[in-house]
Amino acid sequence: MPARRQLLAIIAALGLVLTTFVQSQAQTLTARQTEALAAYERALGDFKSVLAERRRQIDAKQPLPNLPGQALYLARVAVISAYKDLTDAMPSRIGRPNKFEIPPAYFDADIEPLIDEYATLFEIMEAPPAEAQNSATPFKDVVDLAGAIARVRGLAPDHAEAAGRISLGLFFAETNGKQNVRNGRSNTYMGSFQTGPSEDRNGRRKWEAIKGEIAAANPELSARDDKEEARARGTDHRFNHWTNVRDGLMNAHADVFREIPGIVKTLPDPIDQMKLFELIQIVPTPTRSALKSGDLLNYRVSSPTIMKHLRNNSIFAFGQADRARTSASFREILGAMWLFKRKFEKAMVKYAEIKPR
After folding, report:
1. Do residues 233 and 346 share a domain?
2. Does residue 152 share a domain with residue 37?
3. What would the pLDDT profile of 138-189 be if each residue is shown by its tens digit?
4. Whole-number Cα distances in Å, 162 to 171, 220, 293
5. Do both 72 and 164 map to the same domain?
6. Least enclosed by CB within 10 Å: which of 5, 211, 333, 357?
């Protein structure tokens, strides 16, 4: 009997040793995991440091560097990228959902306050210039202008309404629905629709070509346009909300309005429609080619330049696996535009408030 008890004691001791060993192994990180964790902690520290530096400069009313938002943007990209690499190496680090609707594999919800501060700093840095000419009805202006342009392009009323809804999504995608803002990452793109000088001139030229048709079809809107033109005379038209929206739409999107009937069939989700038109803003040439291909969702891009433009606009920008991509279909591109989703949802809410009756 004593021998049996001794044997049981030995077995129990071995079990304890085995359990301790397994737990110890579970807590031991691989070299890849250790490296990923250290990289994330560095990126998070850098992000906090850049945020604190810019906040200190703003509060002290010190001169900001040229393109003051670029360092913030790159630090934010780095912290999301490093977290994605960490969760790729350690799936157990994938946490709870976050209020920004970023996939949890890319974002630790515990750092939500840092992104709030990031947004606040950009709002300060991109505040409109003193001479900006605001509109009392900025959202309705977008919808009205897009709808009027779509109608003279021959669209039926329901598709003209889609043009208005989509264009409101563009306003939120470009500026979060803020009118006449500057750009913390660029000295070129400005205003409610973030256009450059050449795009603004091109849009104005195209508007003049259809102005007579607009006046005949919608005298009230044409009269408003005359007033805004007179108000903006002698200034940068990009800082008059009405003229910047008008010229931005005419420059890049008006010609694509004709494709809306086919687009809504292929992409019945209104948010996907907004994503596609935002791609007209980001990568216009391949997006137009995809629309002409007859197989929009499977149309593939592989140009390094195009992939770079996508990454510079937060598409396939985060983590080694995404950044290693050398090509993507439009189905994959639309799926990767998750940072735009929340903005487009806000646009949908606003559109419901002002939807034409």
Report:
1. yes
2. no
3. 999 999 999 999 999 999 999 999 999 999 999 999 999 999 999 999 999 9
4. 14, 21, 22
5. no
6. 357
Q: What range defines the domain where residue 187 resides?
A: 138-354
pLDDT at position 357: 57
Residue 24 belongs to some domain of the structure: no
Opening angle at CA 339, ends 293 and 99, nearest 5: 145
Can you tell me the distance from the alpha carbon of 275 to that of 340, in angstroms, rounded to the nearest whole number?
Answer: 8
> Identity (one letter) of the amino acid at 180?
N
Strand residues in 240-326 grouped as ranges (E): 300-301
Give how far the C-alpha of residue 292 lies from the chain's centroid of Cα atoms, to the nearest Å: 25
The model's pLDDT over 235-292, given as tens digits with 9 standing for 90+, comes to: 999 999 999 999 999 999 999 999 999 999 999 999 999 999 999 999 999 999 999 9
Q: How many CB atoms lie within 10 A of CB 94?
A: 17
In a domain, 14, yes or no: no
- 240 and 304 in a common domain: yes
